[in-house]
Specification:
With 483 residues, the chain is of the alpha/beta class. The chain has helices spanning 50-67, 72-88, 90-101, 105-125, 163-175, 188-200, 215-224, 237-249, 272-283, 304-315, 337-351, 402-409, 425-434, 467-472; strands spanning 16-18, 21-23, 30-35, 40-46, 132-134, 141-148, 152-155, 179-182, 208-210, 230-234, 253-257, 262-266, 294-300, 355-358, 373-376, 393-399, 417-421, 439-442, 461-462, 475-482. Helices cover 37% and strands 20% of the residues. The chain binds nicotinamide-adenine-dinucleotide.
Amino acid sequence: MTHIASDAASYPRPAMHIDGEWLGVAGRRTQPVLNPATGEVIGEVPLANSEDLARALDGAARGFRIWKKTPADERGRVMKAAAALLRGRVEAIARHATMEEGKTLAETRIELHVCANLLEFYGEECRRTYGRLLVRPTGQRSMVVHEPVGPVAAFAPWNFPIANPGRKLGAPVAAGCSVILKPAEETPASAMAVVQALLDAGLPNGVVQLVFGVPDEVSRQLIASPIIRKVSFTGSTVVGKHLMGLAAEGAKRTTMELGGHAPVIIFDDCDFDKTLETLAVAKFRNAGQVCVSPTRFYIHESIHDRFAAAYAARVGQLRVGDGLIAEHHMGPMANARRPVAVGALVDDALSAGARLLAGGERIDAKGFFFQPTVLADVPLAARMMHEEPFGPVVMTAPFASFDEVVEQANRLPFGLAAFAFTENGRRANLIADAIESGMVGVNTTMIAAVDSPFQGVKQSGHGSEDGPEGLAACLVTKSIHYA
Ligand code: NAD
């Protein structure tokens, strides 16, 4: 374990952007921002009061009136210019994102490019919200057009501090909506950088506003306002259900990206070494704090013990430490809650009879580190076979038949991502069809792309982000008839 000083002096002062003004901590409640690698305070984030939120709502109403009439070409120009600005600022933004979230610099650099690519994609896609012309008798016309849904209240979590704000802003801004964004209070600087890029690119005041606050206070006030027409949330299923309840009071649209518990089905005809390496890298990205993280490894019984042992040996080579240091493969968990929660799940699995093959404990350091962990033969009674661990933990279990593993994979109320590894093409098709999940990766864990919809089924949520489907989720449909 190596630590460097937390370099807090270079960290931006967290501020909100409301109705054209950056507003800091003066006169407001605050919350400390911690560097999860050191546990040190690196900033203070202002928490919005009720007047701040009322101002943001008024600003969003005005911003929407301007932006919905702004031609798609101009909206696209702003978004593409923001993407270029972000790319030019990659080193500073990635550094601040690592300082506040913990993941490695290599990961935050990639994340910044994902965000820029998404803004650029939607900068093009906004010109393609075509409607339809219906077939009618001569002299008559009926048409179907798409319009922006209206001001959106968007809530983004801390695990992708740059890309989540990008997702919450990209499609609605492209569609012509205004957005009040509440990112996680743990990671304010990354969200500020995304908003700043859009403002520097020429986004008019009010189109995007950035607030921090006590999550329950902010969501209640924003969602209750008649100004807000849509609620977009990424986070846990329990919070998502609560926000859906609030949205239902005003019959508001929702997009919900909720929890997952991704099954990984490893058939005996997989490419053993490639599968092992793919999963060793993918699982420990962002210390496993990823909603689509590969989690429940169902391994064919004929290769289970060999695969689990080789995987654990590979995982043991991962170097864990401050994400600012290039040699580290995995950083800390994002906040003090996570290692405690993961430790409790691991202890529970061990007492239920699981075998510990790697890791299993917190790392004795100032930060919020947890060892990359592999548990084999995890019984169904263990809580982690049902609850999303959201951490650097893999659990394995053997399976005998195709039908049995499909039943296990589909057993939970979640259905976000699923993965399968096989070199048999027919089996690949059959398993992809059989899995109840919004996204399936066969021989890959790369299931997110700007042009591909990202979504869950069952209690993993509804509505898509990314791709044309993400844009469609920010539009309402109107039919117009001329006699
Ligand atoms: P949490 O459930 O308290 O919060 C999750 C997110 O929801 C945070 O960003 C938080 O600010 C927000 N939130 C909580 N209550 C809210 C409210 N009333 N109104 C608006 N927003 C609210 O949990 P946590 O400790 O921050 O994270 C742990 C769990 O959250 C994980 O176990 C995981 O299931 C889930 N999570 C999921 C994702 C994802 O990408 N789907 C991301 C982060 C966290």
